[in-house]
Specification:
Elements: H1 3-27, H2 40-43, H3 45-51, E1 54-69, E2 81-92, H4 93-97, E3 102-112, H5 117-122, E4 136-149, E5 154-161, E6 167-169, E7 172-174, E8 206-213, E9 219-227, H6 237-241, E10 247-255, E11 258-259, E12 266-277, E13 282-292, E14 305-314, E15 322-333, E16 343-353, E17 363-375, E18 378-388, E19 399-409
Antiparallel strand pairs: 1-2, 1-19, 2-3, 3-4, 4-5, 5-8, 6-7, 8-9, 9-10, 10-12, 11-12, 12-13, 13-14, 14-15, 15-16, 16-17, 17-18, 18-19
C-alpha cells in the first residue's frame, strides 16, 4: 500500500481507537459486543442529548478494494483504501421551541483520500465505489426543516437537502428513486449503479424543497425542486440566486402494498417518476420496485427472507451519456442458521451509452456482497464486482474487483 494511503488509514483508525478508548474507560468493556454503538453513545452523552430533543448519530465507513485485472490503467497501487464519516443531528423543534410537528436535520460528512481505485485504474462511468467523495475534511451537506401538516398526511421539507430519498411509506423508502434493497452504499450495494439510477441527473446537495403526500394506506405522491448547479461544499445561495437559476424538477407516485403470506406480511413498493432539468430543457422517466417474496417468521419486526428489486430509466442520448438503464437483483437476510441479521445480495445493471457522446460500448456491472453483522455497532461486507466494458470503451478489458467494507456506528 502506498505511503499516502498508509497515512489516511492510520489517521482514520486512530480516530476510532481514541474515541473508543475514551468511551470504554467511562462505561467498561464487558458489553462490547452487545451495545448498540461502539462508544455507548459517546459515554452516555448521546442519550442525554436525546432527552433534550436532539438525536445524534455518528458513523465511519472504511473500504478497501483491489483490482485483479483489466481496467483503464495498469496502475493498481492508488486509491485502494477510502473512508468517510457522517455526523447526523435531528432537532425536535416542538420540544425545543414549541413549534408543533417540525424538526430540523443537519448532516456533516468528510472523506479521504483524494483518489479512489475507480479514478486511478478502473475508469467506470457508473462507479465501483459509491462512497468515495475525495479528500474532504468536513462539509455540512444538509440543513433542512421538515413540517408535518393535515394530520401527518402532508410533509414539507425545505433547505439544503439530498433530493434522492428520506421518506417512507408503509415501511418502504420512497421519494425519489428509492429502494428497500439497493439505496445505501455504506451497508448495501457499493457500485454507484445500485445506489441511484444513473439516467437521472440528480444534483448534489443544495437548496430545494419537497412535498410528500400520503393520505394513509399504500398510495403516495411527491414533487420536488432542487438547484441543478448545487455544490455540497457551499451553502447553495450563490448557485441558486446568483444568476445561474438552473433547476431540477422531479415528481413521483407509487404504491406500497403489503401482501399476505403464511409467514407474515410481505412489504413491497412500486414507484414511477418523471424529471426535467432546465439547463438542458430535457426530460426523462424512471421506474423502480422492490418486493419481499418470502419471510421466515410472521413477527412484523423480523425481516428475514428473500426480496427482489428492479430499476429502469430512460432519457435523451443527445443530452446525457446514458440513454437507457436497467438493473435487477435480490437479497436474502438470514440465509444461514444462526446468522439471522446477515445479508447475501446479488445485483446486475447495464447502461446503454450514447454513441453521439463517443462511447463505443455499453457498460455493465455484476455485484455480490455478504454483509456480516459482527455486533449491533459494526458490520463487515466482502464485496465482488465485475465490470464489463468500463467507461463504455470497447478497447478496455473487463475488470474484476474484490473489496471489503466496514461500517461502524460510534
Amino acid at each position: 500500500m502506498p505511503r499516502t494511503e498508509n497515512i489516511y488509514t492510520g489517521i482514520s483508525l486512530a480516530i476510532v481507537i481514541v474515541i473508543s478508548l475514551t468511551a470504554v474507560g467511562s462505561t467498561g468493556a464487558s458489553d462490547l459486543w452487545d451495545r448498540e454503538t461502539l462508544t455507548h453513545g459517546l459515554g452516555g452523552h448521546v442519550d442525554k442529548a436525546a432527552e433534550s430533543g436532539v438525536d445524534v448519530a455518528i458513523g465511519i465507513t472504511e473500504i478497501y478494494q483491489h483490482k485483479l485485472d483489466g481496467g483503464s490503467s495498469g496502475n493498481t497501487d492508488h486509491g485502494r483504501h477510502t473512508g468517510s464519516y457522517d455526523v447526523e443531528l435531528e432537532f425536535d423543534i416542538d420540544r425545543l421551541l414549541g413549534w408543533k410537528n417540525a424538526f430540523l436535520y443537519v448532516h456533516a460528512e468528510g472523506s479521504w483520500p483524494r483518489n479512489d481505485l475507480d479514478s486511478s485504474s478502473v475508469g467506470s462511468i457508473m462507479g465501483i465505489n459509491g462512497d468515495a467523495a475525495g479528500n474532504r475534511t468536513v462539509d455540512v451537506t444538509e440543513v433542512w426543516i421538515e413540517q408535518t401538516l393535515l394530520s401527518d398526511m402532508l410533509l414539507i421539507r425545505a433547505g439544503k437537502l439530498d433530493i434522492t430519498g428520506g421518506f417512507v411509506c408503509q415501511g418502504c423508502p420512497v421519494t425519489f428513486d428509492g429502494s428497500l434493497f439497493a439505496n445505501d452504499e455504506t451497508t448495501q450495494f457499493l457500485n454507484g449503479a445500485m445506489v441511484n439510477n444513473p439516467t437521472i441527473p440528480f444534483p448534489a446537495q443544495g437548496l430545494g424543497a419537497i412535498l410528500h403526500f400520503n393520505p394513509g394506506g399504500s398510495w403516495y405522491a411527491s414533487i420536488g425542486v432542487a438547484d441543478a448547479l448545487a455544490d455540497p461544499r457551499q451553502t447553495g445561495f450563490r448557485t441558486t440566486f446568483g444568476g445561474g437559476n438552473e433547476q431540477f424538477y422531479v415528481a413521483e407516485t407509487g404504491i406500497t402494498p403489503i401482501l399476505d403470506s403464511a409467514d407474515g406480511k410481505l412489504m413491497g413498493a412500486y414507484r414511477i417518476g418523471v424529471w426535467r432539468e432546465t439547463s438542458t430543457e430535457k426530460m426523462g422517466f424512471y421506474f423502480t420496485c422492490d418486493q419481499m417474496l418470502t419471510k421466515e417468521d410472521p413477527d412484523p419486526e423480523d425481516t428475514q427472507g428473500l426480496g427482489v428489486f428492479a430499476r429502469y430509466g430512460h432519457t435523451d442520448e443527445q443530452t446525457y451519456d446514458i440513454e437507457t438503464f436497467w438493473s435487477i437483483g435480490c437479497q436474502y437476510q438470514g440465509l444461514f442458521e444462526g446468522r439471522d441479521n446477515d445479508i447475501l445480495a446479488l445485483g446486475y445493471a447495464t447502461g446503454d451509452f450514447s454513441a453521439i457522446a463517443g462511447y463505443t460500448a455499453d457498460e455493465s456491472i455484476l455485484e455480490c456482497y455478504y454483509n456480516i453483522l459482527l455486533a449491533p455497532w459494526i458490520s463487515v461486507s466482502p464485496i465482488f464486482q465485475y465490470v464489463s466494458r468500463p467507461g463504455g470503451d470497447v478497447t478496455i478489458n473487463d475488470v474484476t474487483v474484490l473489496g471489503i467494507r466496514a461500517q461502524i456506528a460510534l
